[in-house]
Amino acid sequence: MHIGDFKETYASDQAVFINATSRFWLGILFALLILFPFVAGDYLLFMANLAGITIIGAVGLNILTGFAGLISLGHAAFIGVGGYTAAILSTRFDLPFLLCLPLSGLMAAFFGIIVGGPSLRLKGLYLCIATLAAQLILEFIFVHWESMTGGIRGMNISPPDIFGYVLDNDFKFYFVTLIMVILCVTFARNLFRTRVGRAFIAIRDRDISAELMGINLLRYKTYAFALSSFLAGISGCLWVNFLKTITPEHFPLLESVRYLAMIIVGGMGSILGSILGAIFMTIVPEVISTILGFLVNIFPTAMSFLFPLQQVIFGLLIVIFLVFEPHGLAEIWRRIKNYFHLWPFEH
Amino acid sequence: MKKRIVSTLVLVLSLLLCMGVSFADEEIKVGAGQPITGRFAFAGKHIHQGLMDSLDYANEQGGVGGKKFKYIYEDTGYDLMRAIASFKKIMAQDNPVMMYGESTGVGKAMAPEINSRYHVLYGSTSFSEELADREKNPYTFVSGPTYSQQFGVLLKYIAGQPKKNNKPHRVAFFYSDTEFGRDPIPFARKLAGELGIEVVAEEVTKVGAVDITSQLLDLKRNKPDYCIFQGYVVPPIPEVIRGAKDFGLDITFMGTFWAMSKMLLDKLGPDAEGYMGVCPYAYWYMDDVPMIKTIQAYNKKHYPDETYKPNSYMQGWFTGMVYVKLAQMCHEAGLPITGENLKDMLPKVNNWDTGGLNGVVSFSKSNATASGKVYKAQGGKFVAVSDWIKLDE
Questions:
Q1: A152 closest CB neighbour out of B80, B89, B182
Q2: Closest residue of chain A to B39, computed from CA coordinates
Q3: To the nearest 5 percent, what fractions of chain A are helix, strand and coil?
Q4: Is A139 an interface residue toward B (CB < 8 Å)?
Q5: Residue of B nearest to A153 (CA)
Q6: What CATH number has the domain bearing residue A199?
Q7: ipTM metric
Q8: What is the DSSP letter of A162?
Q9: Which residue in B109, B116, B182 is closest to A245 by CB distance?
Q10: Minimal CB count within 10 Å: which of A154, A162, A331, B317?
């Protein structure tokens, strides 16, 4: 019987999978994730893909904002850079999807480093405004560099293929998304067991003391921007290959704000938080609209009143979550888990 | 004995199966992801209502070959992701033969899958050129003329007007920096050249532009006779028209479909007088048009309190008429009503009388109607100043 966790070494303290129970449930989760596409329909698969792509983006932003404490209002634009890079590389240079994926990430990381430059001098709200500028500048480039980005009309791309195997539906794409999510989440989770990850946290908690500890602020802040944008770029590349179309209208400022909301709702400085936040922000509006759609079928005359309600309900839900659990969904999950941890012999 | 039970079972099962199939065939399903909320809601809710009413009216008339239309819709909030999600949801749950979508973006995003997988007739709120391209997107149609064709109608009308001092007509294009704004401009430039119309100025603004002083000064400098707006719904059109008046400019301002609403005329007030534009549909108050009479009668019966329906409602209604027409054509040809067959019928729509709602319509050359009428605002209403102008004649 499981009666508690007693850590005797530093290694066990740092372990990702603390005990056999967590390994067991994680195994079940993976099994379910692999079985899922075989039972789910088109619609659920679409939502799952979307959630997966959003998770990668949210994990990226959480590295920057949640762990390194650098607020960014330009995350959607970095996703856009990744998306455009993938679209341009695959349409103009006929590069295969598997090559586009890292290249999109690198391109976004490059832009991230440039934007991250001022972060050495700017903090808090000031940095926020600097990244806002990046968002606006990148949006402007998407619209006006017509010869490259296709301007306001954007670009259409053909379905990606991996060694000749064409990923032309949501079912096939699901596995690509799943693998990428697992890779990115594993990477992010392990990042915080290394010197780099710990340096981020030190910078977030107090940059002056971090510097006194011998952390090179410029280097690590640049790392944070690069890693965060790299994941954004990967997310963007998946996004464009999934939807097969890209226009500047897909990466507005509001999308950046949505990503910030995601990590706040999910839990800042928590990988699990990014995942839960991304799923929450993708799935819950759909659930609300389904319920309302059902109500509209019963009360057709109330349509003009019911449909606009979904934004209100969604907003209220976010507020309620934050009021009752400021540390986000990840904290709620932790408490539920703790309750069952030694269940039924808690005391 | 056992054999008998098995054969009875097979018989019963096959009967049930047949019944199931025939039940399913009783209805012609039309799915729609409508922008009922969000920033396009001002038109979306009317388009939704128009399409729903149009199909309901067809049902009241007996449907097609005894089959009734079933309208399945979801609100998309004018959000690409939600719209694609609802498209897939409706296709998975109800598998309709016709779909309706909320924007150009959704049409473009779904086009590859519509062509390769879903094989469903697809109409939308969009008047984009790309969606009327039969070669690329055979399943997709535009419920009226594309923006380029609307510009074509206006330019053709202008070319037919008497010239000032025997000099070529001077035209300015005033458009927003969006896909919606830029869509017809290259075509319009080319056509203007062919018709001997001089394009003397092109003014580009952001969508919500407030300060239009520099554009006004440019108009003043270039002295166009006509100025055509594209890519706006209301602002900054009133500001431009009033500003031009203040500068004492003698310009006839014109708009395309979205800038031809009562909403704009109401905003303009007395300044609306003389504002012109192209609309592919007749207006609610044109009592002499047979289809408008029908629409009024339908509304009187179902919504006695309604006093006006905007042109976006007519767009929805007309789309419904296209759906019904194509279903009828399939029925008359003795073909099952499937997306595939509906698509094949589209090019065969030739000289179809729409009861005056959209004139006499053909989809024979492209998946758009290529016709429209020029209207002029008089006393807060639009009055037709031309007959149906067809581009492909």
A1: B182
A2: A308
A3: 75, 0, 20
A4: no
A5: B179
A6: 1.10.3470
A7: 0.70
A8: E
A9: B109
A10: A162
Which residues from B are below 8 Å from A293, CB to CB? 74-75
Strand arrangement, sheet containing B27-34: B68-75, B27-34, B98-101, B121-124, B140-142
State how far the Cα of B193 lies from the Cα of B171, in Å rounded to an integer. Answer: 11
Tens digits of residue pLDDT in A193-242: 899 999 999 999 998 999 999 999 999 999 999 999 999 999 999 999 99
Residue B267 tokens, joined: 């905003």
- Nearest residue of A to residue B182, measured between CA atoms: A152
How near does any CA of chain B get to the CA of A271, in Å? 24
A145 falls within a domain? yes
**Rounded to an integer, what distance in angstroms lies between the CA atom of residue B36 and that of residue B50?**
12
B interface residues, A as partner, C-beta within 8 Å: 36-37, 41, 45, 74-75, 77, 80-82, 84-85, 88-89, 91-93, 105, 108-109, 111-113, 116-117, 130, 177-179, 182
Task: Provide the CATH number for the domain formed by B11-144+288-361 in this structure.
Answer: 3.40.50.2300
Tokens representing A235 are: 């997310």
Facing B117 at nearest CB: one of A43, A169, A243: A169
When comparing pLDDT for A308 and A105, which is higher?
A105
Q: Chain A partners of B177 at a C-beta cutoff of 8 Å?
A: 143, 152
Both tokens assigned to B374? 């020029």
Give me the sign of the Cα torsion angle A244, A249, A253, A257: negative
At B85-135, the pLDDT tens digits run 888 888 888 889 999 988 888 888 888 888 888 899 999 888 888 888 888
Whether A50 has its CB under 8 Å from any CB of chain B: the answer is yes
pLDDT digits (tens, 9 = 90+) for B303-344: 888 888 999 999 999 999 999 999 999 999 988 888 888 988
- Does the residue A2 lie in any domain? no
Local structure of residue A164 (DSSP, 8 states)? T
How many structural domains are present in chain A? 1
> pTM of this prediction?
0.80
Residues of A in contact with B85 (CB under 8 A): 43, 46-47, 50, 286
Domain limits for position A78:
40-341
User: Distance (Å, rounded) from C-alpha B279 to C-alpha A186?
Assistant: 57
Of B80, B84, B116, the CB nearest to A46: B84
At B207-258, the pLDDT tens digits run 766 788 888 888 888 889 999 999 888 888 888 898 888 888 888 999 999 9
Inspect the interface and report whether the beta carbons of A152 and B112 lie closer than 8 Å.
no
In whole angstroms, give the CA distance from residue A248 to residue B38. Answer: 19
Q: What is the per-residue pLDDT for B278?
A: 92
User: Does a structural domain hold residue A118?
Assistant: yes
Q: At what angle do helices B80-94 and A271-298 cross, to 10 degrees?
A: 60
Indicate the residue type of B365: K
Report pLDDT digits (tens) over B22-63. Answer: 444 578 999 998 888 888 888 888 999 999 999 999 999 888
- φ, ψ of residue B142 in degrees (nearest 5): -110, 130
With contacts defined as CB-CB under 8 Å, which chain A residues touch B93? 43
**Residue A251 located in a structural domain:** yes
Query: Chain A: nearest CA to B103, how far in angstroms?
Result: 12
Is the distance from CB of A307 to CB of A292 less than 8 angstroms? yes
Nearest Cα neighbor of A246 from A141, A152, A113 is A152
Q: Give chain B's end-to-end CA distance (angstroms, integer).
A: 73
Distance from CA of A41 to the nearest CA of B (A): 7
* A169 interface with B at CB cutoff 8 Å: yes
Chain B residues whose beta carbon lies within 8 Å of the beta carbon of residue A170: 88
- CATH no. of B148-279+375-390: 3.40.50.2300
